[in-house]
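Subject: for your reference before the review

Hello V.,

The reviewers asked for a structural picture of the protein, and I figured it would be easier to keep everything in one thread rather than splitting it across files. Below is the amino acid sequence we used in the manuscript, unchanged from the supplementary table.
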Amino acid sequence: MAQNLDLIVTVASPATRAVKERTTRIPIVFVDVGDPVAYGFIPSLAHPGGNMTGMSMQLSEIGVKGIQYMKEILPRATKLVVLGNQKNPGNPSMLTSVVGAASPLGFETKYHEVVSGDVMGTLTAVLQDQPDVLFVIPDTFLYTRRRQIIDFTQTNRIAALYGLKEYVQEGGLIALGPNREEAFRRAAEIVDKILKGANPADIPVEQPTKFELLINLKTAKALGLVVPDHLIMTADEVIE
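And here is what came back from the structure prediction:
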């Protein structure tokens, strides 16, 4: 890596990890990283220390609010399955927040983890639990396999919640997640501060303040579901 760089911007956890392993001197601003503390990038959001700072995507908010939305759409649902990628160290904290939100709503939660990239094998195991709702933890690897996941939910008529809007734009039911455009704008402001002399160690990692709700009514109709009007009115994007 060239050592005469003034700053590096990384997108998502794999790229951030790769760059972190190459330099402890060049300032790094990361964006689209779910839990930078769980990943070991920084010791805390308030005091990142070192040469890294940026935007955390605050994924726990997705699970908590998203599960509430799903209960409104399927009030009789009791079986929730959470799908994660084994290599994502942020899964435990996400799972804790999801279970905390799901239990009071009457959900029994089971967790299935994709091991060695075997998405279809894991989905086959998911099907054995006959879930009413599937929640896919936002993850770079699972995102690249989103077509498989969406096709699985459509074929098996499973209502699914996602944390990235592309899932819904490609046929998923509901997505709730941070507004990534806003996150990139905020990251640009952090870059500006550092280039003007600020120390990344002293810049707290920010969390998103804007979240987007996307609903695919075409998918809802195919699943025989009725989405409450107030959710449709609340949604940032509705696909019909």
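For the response letter, the relevant points are probably these. The chain has two domains: 8-57+180-208, 60-177+212-239. The mean pLDDT is 94.

Happy to draft the paragraph if you're swamped.

O.
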